[in-house]
Structure formats: structure tokens, C-alpha cells
Design goal:
Radius of gyration: 15 Å
Number of helices: 3
Strand content: under 5%
Distance between the termini: 54 Å
Number of strands: 0
Order of helices and strands: HHH
Largest sheet: none
Shape: elongated
């Protein structure tokens, strides 16, 4: 029973971090489509702030033993790849 709870907490923590990464991606998509271009300081500030916040969340989850370091890095790496692709697409417009 206790091991089921631990697994459930691990899965829930990972899912919440994934959801936060998706929120960042959506926020940046909206910002790029409607508000500013990637060269704008506001865009950079929002992106930096959001990425920093997510990295701190991941670090906290790792310290609690809720996720593995490699899984946290994978979340950040995936988000960075998606944001890079989004940025490239916006430049080509």
C-alpha cells in the first residue's frame, strides 16, 4: 500500500510538472502570436521568468524524491526544444 502511494506521488508530481511546462509553451505561443516578437525584451523576460520558475519546481520535486533528476532534465529539454521550434517558425513568418 505504501509503495502504491509513493508511485502515485511520483506520477502526480511528474504530471504536474509536465502540465506546467505545457502552460509555459501555450503562454509563449499566445505572446508570440498576439503581443510581441521573440526579439522583444518583454518576450525574453517572460520566457526567462517562466523557465526559471519551472526549473525551481523541478529542483524542489527532485529534492523531495518525487522525480528523478533525469526526468526533470527531460521535461526542461523537451520544453526548450519546443520553444526553439516555435521561435524558428515565428522567424520564418
Amino acid at each position: 500500500m505504501a509503495s502504491e502511494m509513493i508511485v502515485n506521488h511520483h506520477e502526480k508530481a511528474y504530471a504536474l510538472l509536465q502540465a506546467d511546462a505545457e502552460k509555459i509553451l501555450k503562454l509563449i505561443k499566445v505572446q508570440m502570436e498576439n503581443l510581441t516578437m521573440p526579439q522583444c525584451p518583454l518576450y525574453e523576460e517572460v520566457l526567462d521568468t517562466q523557465m526559471f520558475g519551472l526549473s525551481r519546481e523541478i529542483e524542489f520535486a527532485v529534492r523531495l524524491g518525487l522525480i528523478e533528476v533525469k526526468d526533470g532534465k527531460a521535461i526542461l529539454d523537451k520544453l526548450e526544444r519546443e520553444l526553439s521550434a516555435l521561435h524558428e517558425a515565428s522567424i520564418r513568418k
